[in-house]
Design goal:
- 28% of the residues lie in helices and 28% in strands.
- It is built from 14 helices and 21 strands.
- Helix 1 crosses helix 2 and helix 6 crosses helix 8.
- The chain is globular and about 70 Å long.
Length: 476
C-alpha cells in the first residue's frame, strides 16, 4: 500500500532563495518475505514559494534568522505547520557554501523537518543538481544522447554534460546576471572584479555610479556570449575565456548534441520583448536576450527545460531502507555515518581499472565534492563484477586508494558501496594497502546513484550486517 510524505526542498543560492513543498508517494516494492525496499512511485508539487534575494549579513554569511523567518512565512502561506513536514532537503550553493553557513542554517532550521538532507554544493555538484532539476539528465538517459545544461544564475554559469544518463563532466564560468547591478534609475551600483578588468581592457564606457550605456553594455554581453559558446566547443576562442573560468572548463572528447538552459537568466532567453530590461536590478534579462541569438541556439539541438529558475530539489523523500550484504568489512568506531553524498562510477569508468586510469578518474570526480577548498567525506559507488578474480580485487583496491588520496591525506573515513557481492574481499585488499588501522567501510548489495545521500548505522544481527538508508534527492 502506498504511503504519502510531505517533503520540503529549500534552495539557498548566491542570489536567490526559494522553497517548494511536494507530496511524495512511497511504496514497499519488495515481496512479503524479503527485506523492505521503499521506493518513490509518484511526486506532486503542492506549493511554490516566493523567490527572494538570499539574505546576507555584512560578513558575507547567510542571515540564518532571515532564512528561518522566510521559511516560517511560506509554511504559513501554504497552510501547514512544522509538524506536518516529514522529510526534506536544504541545498546551499554558489558563494553561500562556506562551511559556517551550512552549520548556522542547519541549526536555525533544525525544527522544520524530521530528517533533512543538508548539502553544501560547490560549483561542480551545483552543476549536476541544476542539470537534474532542469530535466537534462532524464532527457539524456531517455534519448540515449549527449546533452549539456547551462545553469546561468547571478554570479556563475554552471555546466554539466550528461551522456546516456551518466555524468560526463562539469565546468563553471564567472558569467551571470548580477555581475553588474543597477538601481531603479539605471545607475550602476556594482561591477564584479573580473568584469571591471574586461571593461578596462576593452575601454568600455561603463562606470560605477553612472547611468548604464546600453550600446557599451551590448559589447560586454557579446564577450560573455562568445565565452559561453566556447565553453561547449563553439566559435573562435575569446581572449577572455581563461579569465572567466571559475574552476575548470569542460574536458570531454564526446560530441555534445543537445543543450538546455536553467537559472534566472534562462527566463530572458525565452522572453520575446523586454519592456524593462533592468526590472530585476541587473543585466540578466539582456544577457538572456543576447544568448537567444547566439550559436548556442543554432549549432546544437535546444531541448525543452522542465524548470529554469526553479531547477532545484523539491525534497529528499525516496528513503530506501535496506541492509548491507553479509560479506562486508568495516571499522565500527566510525559508525554511524549520516548524509554522505554519493559518487557513483559509470560502467565506462570501471572498465578502465586494468589500464591504471581508474584512480585518475576518481581523483577528478572527487573534486566535485570540494566545498570552500575543503574535501568532504563521500560514498564511492562501484558496480563491481560477479565472481571477481583475485587480480581484479587487488587492482581495483589499488585504484580506489589512488583515487581517494585527497580524503586519505585529510584522514577522512572511506566509504565504499559495491552493488555486487564482493565487499569482504575488496575490504580485505583495501585494508592491506591503506595505512595501519585506517577507518573505512566497504559494503555491498546496495544500489546507489549520483545525487543520492546515504546513512550507515551501527552493526546489527551480531555485527554481520549494517543498516543503510539511501536518500534520493527529488526534482520537480
Amino acid at each position: 500500500m502506498a504511503e504519502t510524505l510531505l517533503s520540503v526542498g529549500i534552495d539557498i543560492g548566491t542570489s536567490t532563495t526559494q522553497l517548494i513543498l511536494s507530496e511524495l508517494s512511497i511504496e514497499n516494492m519488495a515481496s512479503v518475505f524479503t527485506i523492505p525496499r521503499v521506493s518513490i512511485t509518484d511526486k506532486k508539487v503542492i506549493f511554490k514559494s516566493d523567490i527572494i534575494f538570499t539574505p546576507i549579513l555584512e560578513n558575507n554569511l547567510i542571515d540564518s534568522d532571515g532564512i528561518k523567518e522566510f521559511v516560517e512565512q511560506q509554511y504559513k502561506r501554504a497552510g501547514i505547520t512544522k509538524s506536518d513536514i516529514q522529510t526534506g532537503a536544504i541545498i546551499i550553493t554558489g558563494e553561500t557554501v562556506r562551511r559556517e553557513n551550512a552549520q548556522t542554517v542547519a541549526k536555525a532550521l533544525s525544527g522544520f523537518a524530521g530528517d533533512f538532507v543538508v548539502a553544501t554544493a560547490g560549483p561542480d555538484l551545483e552543476s549536476i543538481i541544476a542539470g537534474k532539476g532542469a530535466g537534462t539528465y532524464s532527457y539524456s538517459e531517455r534519448q540515449h544522447t549527449t546533452a549539456v545544461n547551462l545553469d546561468i544564475g547571478g554570479g556563475t554559469t554552471n555546466l554539466v554534460v550528461f551522456n546516456d544518463g551518466d555524468i560526463e563532466d562539469t565546468a563553471c564560468f564567472d558569467i551571470g546576471g548580477r555581475l553588474i547591478k543597477v538601481d531603479g534609475n539605471e545607475i550602476i551600483r556594482y561591477i564584479s572584479p573580473k568584469v571591471k578588468e574586461i571593461i578596462k581592457k576593452e575601454d568600455l564606457d561603463i562606470y560605477l555610479n553612472e547611468k548604464m550605456n546600453l550600446k557599451e553594455l551590448d559589447k560586454l554581453l557579446d564577450i560573455f556570449v562568445q565565452v559561453l559558446e566556447n565553453s561547449v566547443g563553439l566559435g573562435k576562442k575569446s581572449p577572455y575565456f581563461d579569465l572567466l573560468i571559475t574552476n575548470k572548463p569542460l574536458n570531454t572528447n564526446l560530441k555534445i548534441k543537445c543543450i538546455s538552459f536553467s537559472g534566472g537568466v534562462a527566463d530572458g532567453i525565452t522572453k520575446e520583448s523586454l519592456q524593462n530590461p533592468f526590472v530585476y536590478g541587473d543585466i540578466g534579462l539582456l544577457l538572456g536576450k543576447k544568448i537567444s541569438g547566439s550559436l548556442l541556439m543554432t549549432a546544437l539541438e535546444v531541448i525543452p527545460t522542465v524548470e529554469t529558475i526553479r531547477a532545484t530539489v523539491v525534497g529528499a523523500g525516496s528513503h530506501t531502507t535496506d541492509v548491507s550484504g553479509s560479506t562486508i568489512t568495516y571499522k565500527e568506531d566510525i559508525l554511524p555515518l549520516k548524509n554522505i553524498p554519493i559518487l557513483q562510477l559509470s560502467k565506462d569508468d570501471e572498465s578502465t581499472y586494468n589500464c591504471g586510469n581508474l584512480g585518475n578518474i576518481i581523483q577528478e570526480k572527487v573534486k566535485w565534492f570540494i566545498v570552500d577548498e575543503e574535501v568532504q567525506i563521500i560514498g564511492l559507488g562501484v558496480e563491481g563484477v560477479h565472481s571477481p578474480s583475485f587480480k581484479f580485487i587487488q587492482d581495483l583496491a589499488k585504484e580506489i586508494i589512488k583515487g581517494l588520496d585527497l580524503l586519505i591525506h585529510e584522514e577522512l573515513p572511506l566509504v565504499i558501496i559495491v552493488k555486487e557481492d564482493m565487499a569482504k574481499a575488496l575490504g580485505h585488499s583495501l585494508y592491506e594497502h591503506l595505512p595501519k588501522d585506517y577507518p573505512f567501510v566497504c559494503i555491498d548489495s546496495i544500489h546507489v546513484r549520483n545525487g543520492d545521500y546515504i546513512d550507515i548505522g551501527k552493526p546489527i544481527a551480531e555485527g554481520s550486517v549494517l543498516p543503510v538508508v539511501v536518500k534520493t534527492l527529488v526534482f520537480n
